[in-house]
Write a structure and sequence with these properties.
- With 744 residues, the chain is an alpha/beta fold.
- Among the domains are: 4-126, Sandwich (Immunoglobulin-like), CATH 2.60.40.3350; 137-235; 528-744, Pectate Lyase C-like (3 Solenoid).
- The protein is built from five helices and 58 strands.
- The strands form ten sheets. Strands 17-19-22-27-30-33-37-41-44-47-51-55-57 form a 13-stranded parallel sheet, with helices on one face. A 13-stranded parallel sheet has the order 18-20-23-28-31-34-38-42-45-48-52-56-58, with no helix packed on it. Strands 21-24-29-32-35-39-43-46-49-53 form a ten-stranded parallel sheet.
């Protein structure tokens, strides 16, 4: 009787699981008991409908075992002999499914040791997919084996008859001698001789019969061998390969999964996609996903189950024409093995690729190095595309493609496109890239299109980075307070036109439009940068119909720009822990005495048609307006330090402009007044007022509604009282006001 081994595994969805590797032996009865927890509490399995354990043996065959719920949070898997028929480490995964799909996945491994007592013989219920597909193959092999046994038995019978014939011959000779010696018994010996002759004839006839039987057994063995040779092409290359990939060359009998269905290749094929539930010239339908979406088989090769629930498959006579010989297949296998070894070596060389821009001709002495940057980035792009061609749809985790830029001054005369997934590094923060013309220096490209994965667009998980660079524009070194001269405002330091970009530790100075622009993208990080002397320090621009989202702006110094951080059609972004100071430079239109709008200079933070953004822990000082809302709602302005201007100009802490500002939250901010002629805490502009008249009435629901302003501290000069507008539908309360400042 096989040994019974039971292993209990405790797993938790929210706690890292440490599972000792179970060790079992072939032909043992193995049971895995899984106790499921959620953050230390028993996880009720009432909503889970299906439990599977998939074991991938060392021969690459996958065997699935269904589990049973044996307790509130307990699942039991009883393994058959097929799962542990192959010796070695088994990669296993336990998966839980509810009616909507897979709930959770748990990978682990277990070891299978060789059974020294017996060879493995699978039972009928444990036949593998190959045995089922072969159908009559095992029976033919069994008949051939029996025919060989019968042939050997017939040969032994012939030898025995030969020996008996020799014995009869000896007896006949002895009879003749006895006849000569004993004449009186002649008649008796004659009769016995006749009897012996008859017996000899019988033996001869039996020998002929056995000879015929032996020839028949030989023919049966040959027929069985031929039948096996006919069956073998049907199982050559038979086995599950992978989910269907249009770039993979599949051979006859390869099995793939595509959508909910499984298909078997009818001939070698590349790029011919299997579809539907009807056979094509390249693919035969092997299994069709059930209506519950969990893969329950409702037919195999178009054949449904009989009354007993069995699906009877008939293997068609194979067409052996045009098939390769065994020698040709062996040569091809050797060639594939050699190619795989080369690909592994190539893949290892790609784990960390760095090139230096000076290796492509850059001098870094102030002369034009544009072409060197273009050539270096093209080289990295080609390596990236080669890697993707070999490895398919992947992230660049573990593989870096880096352009090193040593210390120096690199002149750029046209926009440089940075391919997706490449990192630019200023070595030791000593590299400066500059332009003297009204252009954008770096354009981060979206040059790898999204692709459809299971019916949905999916972006490749590649990150582009720019680190430790100085990026100087045509306004570098100019006086930020000189009179505004107008002109084209198209030059930018870095424009982001793709997802997943990190800009860190850069010094970006002197661009008429913006230091950094993010166009309609997401998953952007802007951290530890210094942005000065530009029209806008940072501009998150969703355009006219799209949005910027999931962008993090943190720990930056943003000074002496026309505006600090400007958002247009942006939601779900965070602007935290920045220093935003004196962004009153004359790189944008507007003067201190003109109406304050979202387009003019002098704003630290501008929110235009934006919602659900967070501004926290920022230091904001010396602006015409620290925060300006323009048709924006549901934003959170909390825990900031806001200081008004320090000159004789009118200053505003918070301005509400436009007619669609609602549900904004301003809480726990400290606001300090300045020395200007008007230093207001909250200013509301009439949407239709060209002159920007300040209203003090209580009926501004269409302009400013449902905003919450509380627990703010405002410190001002006693003679410069703040203006607080408090419409009925807004809540402004529990604000700290010192030095006898009155609330209007």
């Amino acid at each position: 009787m096989p040994l019974q081994n039971t292993f209990t595994l405790d797993v938790d969805f929210k706690v890292r699981n440490l599972i000792n590797e179970p060790i079992v032996t072939q032909n043992d009865e193995v049971t895995f008991i899984l106790n499921v927890y959620d953050d230390g509490q028993e996880f009720a399995l009432s909503s889970v409908s299906t439990f599977t354990l998939v074991s991938v043996r060392t021969d690459k065959q996958s065997v699935m075992t269904l589990g049973n719920k044996t307790g509130i949070n307990q699942i039991t898997f009883a393994l058959g002999s097929t799962e542990i028929s192959v010796v070695g480490k088994i990669n296993a995964v336990i998966q839980l499914y509810d009616v909507d799909g897979r709930v959770s996945t748990l990978p682990f491994t277990y070891q299978v040791l060789k059974d020294p007592a017996t060879n493995y013989v699978p039972s009928t219920d444990e036949q593998t997919l190959i045995e089922l597909v072969l159908g009559q193959g095992p029976a033919i092999l069994a008949d051939a084996k029996q025919a060989t046994v019968d042939a050997n038995a017939a040969a032994q019978s012939v030898e025995q008859i030969k020996n008996e014939t020799m014995a009869v011959k000896d007896a006949t000779e002895q009879v003749r001698i006895d006849t000569l010696a004993v004449k009186n018994a002649t008649e008796i010996i004659k009769d016995e001789t006749i009897d012996v002759k008859d017996a000899t004839d019988i033996v001869k006839n039996e020998t002929e019969i056995l000879k015929v039987s032996t020839e028949k057994a030989k023919d049966d063995a040959i027929d069985a061998t031929n039948a096996i040779n006919l069956v073998l092409p049907n199982v050559l290359n038979l086995g599950y390969i992978e989910p269907y990939d249009a770039t993979t060359q599949y051979e006859k009998n390869n099995i793939v999964r595509h959508g909910k269905n499984s298909y078997i290749a009818l001939q070698p094929t590349l790029g011919n996609e299997p579809t539907g539930t009807i056979d094509s010239p390249y693919w035969g339908v092997l299994a069709v996903g059930g209506i519950d979406g969990l893969g329950s088989v409702i037919s195999v090769n178009g054949v449904g189950p009989n009354a007993n629930g069995d699906v009877i498959l008939t293997i068609p006579d194979p067409d052996l024409s045009g098939l390769a010989t065994k020698v040709e297949l062996q040569a091809l296998d050797d060639e594939v093995t050699s190619l795989q070894e080369e690909l592994v070596s190539f893949d290892q060389r790609l784990t960390d690729i760095r090139v230096n821009v000076k290796d492509f001709g850059a001098l870094g002495d102030g002369s034009d190095d544009t072409q060197a940057f273009i050539d270096a980035l093209l080289s990295l792009k080609q390596k990236r595309d080669s890697y993707r061609l070999i490895n398919g749809f992947q992230s660049n985790t573990g593989t870096t493609l880096t352009l090193d830029i040593p210390s120096g001054f690199y002149k750029i005369t046209q926009t440089i496109g940075i391919p997706k997934g490449i990192t630019l590094i200023g070595v030791n923060n000593g590299a400066a890239v500059f332009t003297e013309t009204n252009i954008t220096i770096f354009d981060v490209l979206d040059d790898i299109p999204e692709r459809v994965v299971e019916g949905a667009l999916q972006d490749e998980d590649l990150y582009t980075e720019i680190k430790g660079l100085s990026v100087f524009g045509p306004l570098y070194g100019t006086n930020p307070f000189a009179a505004y001269t107008g002109g084209s405002a198209t030059s930018c330091g870095i424009v982001v036109n793709t997802h997943r970009v990190r800009i860190r530790g850069c010094n970006i100075v002197g661009f008429r439009n913006s230091g950094i622009v993010v166009n309609k993208k997401y998953y952007i990080t802007i951290k530890d940068n210094k942005l000065t002397h530009s029209g806008k320090g940072i501009f998150l621009d969703g355009g006219t119909s799209d949005f910027v989202t999931a962008t993090k702006v943190t720990h930056n110094e943003i000074r002496l720009n026309g505006q600090g951080v400007s958002l247009n059609r942006a939601f779900g972004n965070s602007i935290n822990d920045n220093t935003i100071e004196s962004n009153i430079a004359n790189y944008l239109p507007g003067t201190d005495t003109q109406p304050v709008t979202h387009l003019s200079k002098g704003k630290a933070i501008v929110l235009r048609s934006s919602h659900e953004n967070t501004f926290k822990n920022n230091y904001v000082e010396n602006h015409i307006a620290n925060i300006l809302f323009y048709n924006s709602y549901s934003n959170n302005i909390s825990d900031n330090y806001l200081v008004a201007g320090n000159d004789a100009t009118n200053h505003h802490q918070i301005i509400f402009d436009g007619n669609n500002n609602f549900n904004n939250l301003l809480s726990f901010n400290e606001m300090r007044g300045g020395v200007g002629t008007v230093s207001s805490l909250i200013t509301v502009y009439d949407y239709n007022s060209v002159q920007g008249t300040v209203f003090y009435t209580f009926n501004l629901d269409d302009i400013l509604s449902q905003n919450s302003i509380w627990n703010n501290g405002f410190i001002g000069v006693e003679t410069k009282a703040p203006i607080i507008i408090e419409p009925k539908s807004n809540r402004i309360y529990k604000n700290k006001v010192v030095k006898n400042i009155t609330l209007s």
